[in-house]
Design goal:
heterodimer; A: alpha+beta; Arc Repressor Mutant, subunit A; Glutaredoxin; 2 domains; 4-stranded mixed β-sheet; 7 helices; elongated; B: alpha+beta; Ubiquitin-like (UB roll); Alpha-Beta Plaits; 3 domains; two-stranded antiparallel ribbon; 6 helices; 9 strands
Chain lengths: 163, 210
């Protein structure tokens, strides 16, 4: 682990007392800082809370929210909720998989894209929708997807969330 | 001096030590109550819900965690119990992606015993949607293999590791349908005592021949 990262982690831990029930808040905060739970961080948290690394792994793998692999620079979340499903989120997902070259749940080898799905983003009126990092793009079409993921054929689509 | 308690189980009057659980009392008197997560060396957790019995006026309790009380009337077989545990066992078998013929645990397997006890028909189980993919064997441990296809997730191995061996090396990983038992990172915590392997009620943990 790099020195800077370890320093950041120690700073996070300094707000906790080392009780076992602080595990989930710690994991959430660490993931907030690193975008995932690095192996070194898990080791450090384990010794801080005096529990086994396996126990942390058990907790982290139980909750879908925790990730053990780093995210790409652009995290693409495709909504697979009912409204989006009816309006063709499956085709949207396939088109993104084709454009970006990664399957659902994977990260591209150049660490640019992570593609994942979620049960509902919460803006069903804009179905089908997707989210890139924290920007929501609604009323997606295959053309819009191509525009978003192939910069050379971009048709002036902005990433400011108004898609 | 241990106090003695007498109670009735399936119409049989039985006297046992005070503090004995209903399941233990039954097993000692050659009455089989289905169970998977219970092991005599470990604390009962009532996780598998298979050892359900009817007491008194038809209340259903997990017999492994129910201490015998004086004058208690226990029924181990009834349509009500059957209705609850049969689907549980059927689902376990449906997710148990293996044939008994080639299994090293065959003939001393708790699941086989359960199937025979409940007279479960494999054809009835096949109507359920069986898992498509066979999960690969986990060979990370130096002295035994873990077969997730046979595991019933009873937790006996985890409990053994924690309470008998005082080392926790094994943990549940994942959630729901994809839950497995696994090691994480610190493999060195496992001291290869194989206590978990000897206690596995099915053939999920298999000692590797050296």
């Amino acid at each position: 682990m790099e020195e800077l990262e370890e320093q950041l982690l120690r700073e996070v831990l300094s707000f906790y007392r080392g009780k076992k029930n602080e595990l989930i808040p710690i994991l959430l905060e660490v993931q907030g800082n690193f975008s995932y739970l690095p192996e070194d961080a898990i080791q450090l948290i384990a010794s801080f809370l005096n529990i086994a690394e396996g126990e942390i792994y058990s907790v982290a793998s139980f909750y879908a929210q925790f990730r053990l692999l780093p995210l790409g620079r652009q995290c693409v979340t495709v909504c697979r909720g009912t409204a989006c499903h009816i309006r063709g989120s499956h085709q949207i997902l396939q088109e993104i998989e084709k454009a970006v070259g990664v399957k659902e749940g994977e990260t591209s080898s150049d660490m640019e894209y992570t593609l994942e799905t979620v049960a509902c983003i919460g803006c069903c009126a804009l179905a089908p929708c997707l989210r890139i990092n924290n920007n929501v793009h609604g009323e997606m079409t295959l053309e819009k997807v191509r525009g978003l993921f192939n910069p050379e054929s971009s048709s002036g689509l902005s990433l400011d969330g108004r898609g | 001096m241990m106090d003695k308690v007498s109670f009735t189980i399936d119409g049989l009057e039985v006297v046992v030590d005070n503090g004995t659980s209903v399941l233990e009392a039954a097993l000692r008197n050659n009455i089989y109550i289905p169970h998977l997560c219970y092991h005599p060396d470990l604390e009962a957790r009532g996780a598998c819900r298979l050892c359900i019995v009817e007491i008194g006026g038809g209340e259903l309790v997990t017999s492994c965690r129910m201490p015998v009380e004086s004058g208690m009337v226990v029924k181990t077989k009834s349509p009500k119990i059957e209705k609850i545990i049969r689907p549980v066992v059927e689902l376990l078998i449906a997710d148990h992606h293996a044939s008994c013929a080639s299994c090293p645990s065959s003939s001393h397997c708790e699941l086989q015993k359960l199937m025979a006890h409940l007279r479960i028909d494999r054809r009835r189980v096949r109507r359920l949607r069986l898992p498509k993919v066979k999960a690969p064997l986990d060979t990370t441990n130096p002295c035994f293999d873990y077969d997730p296809n046979k595991c019933v997730l009873c937790g006996i191995c985890l409990q053994t590791c924690e309470s008998i061996h005082r080392v926790s090396a094994l943990y549940y990983v994942g959630r729901g349908y994809t839950t497995r038992i696994a090691f994480y990172g610190d493999k060195s915590r496992c001291e290869s005592c194989r206590e978990c392997v000897t206690r596995c009620p099915v053939g999920a943990l298999i000692s590797r021949k050296t």
